[in-house]
Amino acid sequence: MDVDDDLPPADAAAALRLIQDQRSATARRLDPDARLLYWPWGVAWLVGFGLFFLRFSPDDRELLRLPSWLPLTVLFALLLAAGVIQAVVSTRAYGQVIGDSAQRGRWYGCTWALGSVSIYAGLGRISEHLPDDLAGLVWSATAVGLTGALHMAGGAIWLDRDLFRLGVWISVINLAGVFAGPGWHALVIAVAGGGGILVAGAIARRRQRHRR
């Protein structure tokens, strides 16, 4: 064992480089690639809601002949995959974090889970009394609206401007899609929603690189 390896650097410049290297390594470990947190959700929305538009287009048109069950199945499968990816990435990055940040994260996760279950339970009771096109609009608009609101809440909790702005964007386009009506809502969410999440991930990743 070389004792010199355990000694601090002899000059200030070397010590500063060592500190910067250690900070960069810590940042990389605790700040996972933003693309892994954003892009799976963007792809899920782009493909899933895109299939909804192609299968259930406005005025009861069918732009692409697909089984009626396929769009929802694909959307749920992609959302599940995105959730698993985010859970794995977040656990690896933040699993050792303790204190207030960890507590906020746990509570925020509970908010997502309980909020979603509560809303979907209510929708299940009323959607059966609506025409199919309006029932689909109510389900998708509510789910997207909840997503936008919780993104804004997350941005406020962690003072994350990018996350808050994404929540605002999702809320605005959701409102636009609702006014556009059944069929069009799916197109708006697929293109502007899914595309917006992909862009947000690219921007967040670029800022990560600048910080490092």
Helix-and-strand structural type: mainly alpha
Number of extended strands: 0
The radius of gyration is 22 Å
What is the count of helical runs?
Answer: 7
Q: Runs with pLDDT <50, length 5+?
A: none
SSE series: HHHHHHH
Mean pLDDT score: 85
Distance between the termini: 32 Å
Relative helix content? over 70%
Strand content: under 5%
Question: Number of folding domains?
Answer: 1
Rough outline = globular
Main sheet attributes: strand count, strand direction, barrel closure = none
Keywords: Membrane, Transmembrane, Transmembrane helix
Transmembrane segments: 36-54, 74-95, 107-126, 138-158, 186-204
Summarize the model shown.
By secondary structure, the protein is mainly alpha-helical.
Explain this structure.
This protein has 212 residues and is mainly alpha-helical. The protein has helices at 12-30, 34-55, 70-94, 100-126, 132-158, 161-180, 184-211. The chain has one domain. The chain is 79% helix and 0% strand. Helix 2 runs antiparallel to helix 7 (184-211).
SSE blueprint and pairings:
Elements: H1 12-30, H2 34-55, H3 70-94, H4 100-126, H5 132-158, H6 161-180, H7 184-211
Helix pairs in contact: 2-3, 2-7, 4-5, 5-6, 6-7
Which features does this protein show?
7 helices, 212 residues, mainly alpha, 79% helix
